C-alpha cells in the first residue's frame, strides 16, 4: 500500500525522573536522551517498517536537530520528497519527562512544523496514493493547516481512505475548528483524553455521539492498558489489550498503534482485527525507549495475531 502522511517531525529531549519537581524544586534525572520523534514522523516510520511505501509531508529547520529528527525515516526508506526546509524556524522539539512506570509529561515547541507551506502542495502528489494519514498537529493552525485542508479536499475527490490521528496539544492549539476540519474522515484515532478534549464530553459514548453529529462514523479510542475501542456504524467493540512485561516508556505507542491500524485496514482486514494488531504494536513500542525506539515489523504482528 502507498501512504501519504502529513504532520510533524521533531526531536524529543527525554528526561527520566522518579517524580516531577514541584515549583522551585530541582530533581535529578536518572537518564537523559535525545531521540527522533513527532507524531506524523513516527507513524510514517512505522508504516514503512511494516513494508509499505510512505511519503511524508513535513517541515524541518536547518539546525543541528535536523539529522536526528530524520535518521529513522531515512533508514526505513520513507520518501522525503515532500519534506520542506525552514531557514527561520528550528526543527520542532519536545521536552519529555518520563516518570517511573512509563507515564510521561511533555512540553512542546512547534517550530518549523507549524509553517508547512501550503503553496507547495500539489494535488498530483496523491495520484499514486492509496491512503492519506493526517496528524492533527498539521491542523493546529498556521500555514500547515491550509496544507492539510488542501490535501484532505484532494483526497476526498480521489476517494482515498483518510485516517486522522489526534493529539492533546493539537486539540488545544486548533480550537473549535478542528471538529469541522475532520468532518468526514474515514477513521479518527485518539485516546480517551483527546476524545473528551475534542468533544467536550466526559464519557466515551457521549463523545462518540458528538463525532457522529459531525460526520465521523468510524472512530478508534486508545485505552492504554485496557486495550482500545472500535466504533463503526455496525458495531462498538472493546478490543482486549496485548499484555507485555516491563513497560518502560509510552512515548510513541499511540503513533505505532495508528500505523498498525491504518496498515491493517488498507491490507483488507476488518477494523476489529486491525485494532487487535494495533494493540500489539502499541504495547511492543512501550517496552522500548523513545517514540521510535522500536519500529514495528510485520513479523511482530503475525507472530501474535495470525493473518486470517
From TrEMBL:
GO molecular function per UniProt: kinase activity
Tree of life domain: Bacteria
Listed GO biological process terms: phosphate-containing compound metabolic process
Record-linked Pfam families: PfkB (PF00294)
Domain Carbohydrate kinase PfkB per the UniProt entry, residue ranges: 5-293
Keywords, in A-Z order: Kinase, Transferase
Similarity section: Belongs to the carbohydrate kinase PfkB family.
Record-given protein name: Carbohydrate kinase family protein
